[in-house]
Each structure stands twice: as C-alpha cells, then as structure tokens.
C-alpha cells in the first residue's frame, strides 16, 4: 500500500517532491552534530561542512535557512560509543525547538555512530560475523521512536538490514507517529566514495567492511530488489547512493515501486569536485550544478548534497 497521504501531508515534502525544475526545496543538506562538542571542526575534504556542537549547528542552520535551505539530514554523533536508548534525541529537540516548522528535519537512523564496533548492526555475542537481526531491528525501532518523540520530521534508516523499514514503521505507528515518513536508504552500494563521511560521523568499522549488508556495485538485480524490499515494507521515499554511480537505476526503481526516488551525492563525490576546483582543474560550483542537473534528468526527485547550502549562490530559486 502506498502512503500518499503521509508523504504529501507536510508542505516541505510537497515542495521536495513537486515535479518541475531544480529548486532549493529539492536539496537536502546533511549536518553532523556531535553531542557534548563545543565549537566546530573541519571535515577533511568536505568544503563548507563541519562537525559541530549544538550551538554552532543552530547558527549554521539559521544561516542556511536564510539561504533557502529547508531540508536537513541530521547525523547525530553521540559523545560516547555505546548503545544508549536515544542517542542524539537532545540534538533533535534543540534544533526543532529553535526552528520548528521552518525546516524539515530528517534524521539518519543507524547504529554505526553509537556502536562500539562501528557497524550498522549488532552481532551475536562473541561473533563478528553473525548479525543479531532481532536485536538490531529492535534497537533501530526504538531509536526511530525516540527521534520522532524528540521532534524529527522524518526517519532515514541507513543500515540496509532486512526488515528494518517494517520494524521502524511498526514502532512509529504504535507510538502515535503515523504521520512521520520513512526515507529509506534503499539501494546503498558498497563504495569507495564514502571516505570523508566516515570520519565526520565517527563510523569507521573496527573490523571488516560492510559488504555483508551493502550491495556489490556489479549487481543490478540486487540493487533493484533492495529498493523494492523497502517499498514492500512501507517506505515512503526511496534513496540511492552513491548518486552518480546509481543514476541508471532511478527510473527502473520508480517504475517498479511508484515511490519518490532520490539520490545521495556522497562525501567522496562532493569532495572530488571540491578538490578539482582547489587544484584549478575545474570550476567547482559549475561542476556541482552540472551534477545536480544530471541527477534530475535521470529521474531523481530530490538530492541530498553537501552543497545544498551553496545552492542559493549558484542561482537556484527556492521553488
Ligand atoms: Zn550505519
């Protein structure tokens, strides 16, 4: 069943998913907010993006809102590793307390920032290979519930575990959050383009890699099935990442699911353009804008990009 009401009820989502040209309302700005951090620090490679404490984040968001950014993807980074009941909920309350409905706050929901092992799942005791799916899904569901309770406008699960969208939907519905949409990281490839992000979110795995639960870039069928699975489980929006290496899948996935499909222009994609610019090999802003137009041409209905806050300077209108 398609939840058209849920994904159209909020005016920010209506603008995000409106058909038509590129607008600021279709760009989502990631923000990394670190609990207990005072001030901010640079993220290597991610020009114009920083890891911030809450106060610095509030100032940044205020300036972004003035520049027409409406959608944010929050990565809450807990001060300490360990599976707490609601890591980052205070950050959400502070942001929504300050900006209310001026912004639409999506919250990345995963275990890799809080898990001592840096993986997106919990493992069975004494095992570094057998995923404890039940415990993982329960924890993800309780994070989602806590985030919605703290004021999150949307939940964005990024772990890629089987069953997590259904588990999160069930917990949200049971606790009165039927109106909160789920934007699922539905087709997430194992990729060499995630480098700068892992430092920013403090989520580098302690051992192994994520090939057990991320998709091999050679496998088109897996890629389609992963998004269809999320659609079947009740996702409201689907998302592919990395962006540029997934554009061939946007229209096929939309055709199969009829759900809005967007892309995440990941840290390595953004940083590579910034580096070309810094070396004087290209015009960074022009290259960035070109990629956004390509995403749209390929069928992306929204774009998560570290450059959203530059959109205004690139001449993109709010709607
Ligand atoms: Zn993760």
Task: Describe, in plain words, how this protein is organized in 3D.
The protein has one domain (4-310): Aldolase class I (TIM Barrel), CATH 3.20.20.70. The protein is built from eleven helices and ten strands. The chain has helices spanning 4-8, 11-17, 54-66, 89-99, 133-150, 164-174, 195-201, 220-233, 247-257, 267-278, 284-298; strands at residues 27-34, 40-42, 50-52, 71-77, 104-109, 154-157, 183-188, 237-241, 261-265, 303-305. Strands 1, 2, 3, 4, 5, 6, 7, 8, 9 and 10 form a ten-stranded mixed sheet that branches. α3 (54-66) packs parallel to α4 (89-99), α8 packs across α9 and α10 (267-278) runs antiparallel to α11 (284-298). The longest helix is centred in the middle third of the chain and has 18 residues, at 133-150. The chain is globular, with a radius of gyration of 18 Å. It starts with a helix and ends in a 14-residue tail after the last strand. The structure holds zinc ion. The site of zinc ion (ZN) has 6 residues, from loops.
CATH architecture: Alpha-Beta Barrel
Associated small molecules: zinc ion
Structural class: alpha/beta
Supply the CATH class.
Alpha Beta
Question: How would you name the CATH homologous superfamily?
Answer: Aldolase class I
**SSE pattern, N- to C-terminal:** HHEEEHEHEHEHEHHEHEHHE
Main beta sheet, described? 10 strands, mixed
Roughly how much helix do the residues carry, as a percent range?
25-40%
Q: Whole-number average pLDDT?
A: 91
Count of domain modules = 1
| Helix count from the secondary structure assignment | 11
Q: What's the CATH topology label?
A: TIM Barrel
Number of strands: 10
How would you describe the shape? Answer: globular
- As a whole number of angstroms, the C-alpha radius of gyration is 18 Å
